[in-house]
Amino acid sequence: GQQVMQIPQYQHVQEGEDFTTYCNSSTTLSNIQWYKQRPGGHPVFLIQLVKSGEVKKQKRLTFQFGEAKKNSSLHITATQTTDVGTYFCADNYGGSQGNLIFGKGTKLSVKP
Amino acid sequence: DAGITQSPRHKVTETGTPVTLRCHQTENHRYMYWYRQDPGHGLRLIHYSYGVKDTDKGEVSDGYSVSRSKTEDFLLTLESATSSQTSVYFCAISGTGLSGYTFGSGTRLTVV
Lengths: 112, 112
Description:
The complex is a heterodimer of chains A (112) and B (112). Chain A contains no helices and 11 strands. Chain A has 112 residues and is mainly β. The model of chain A has no long low-confidence stretch (mean pLDDT 94). With 112 residues, chain B is mainly β. Helix content of chain B is 0%, strand content 58%.
């Protein structure tokens, strides 16, 4: 079945350093969604990418969708302690009925 | 997030007993989903609903059943709880299936 691989599993950074997490698939991804889950919290929707090569920015966060729609990335510039949490990508393989298949997430810790 | 609540927030139950988790939404969204989250596995879809009395299985549906008799309520039932069903359960809603999901705060279930 459809699988979404996410790397790295963990990332420890010093505050102010950049951070990137990658989402890969052997098959073409439909629409990629990105979520953030704070420790002890629930996933919160960040953004959805639909088009090949799409790039979207939210303040210090940059999201990219690969040209072949087989990978995506989330880059955070100059991390802050508020960025701590687990970042998940998810492929919306179910089309109009939804059904997201999630990557296993990248857990980010930020040392002040 | 406002508009979706899960109950109970925590539950401890014994092996072999039935358990029902409730998800309630006030957003009038068509789509509702049940996920479980386990270390090393990320978020996995159990069942979903695309309308009143319209439900379907997800990736890990064995041992679970669902019901949706009203737009606002989506119930997840463990017919006979097992220790392998110890997990954090999240409900999510989506307006169109193609938009980002809004997750509830989760139910932490422990089966002893």
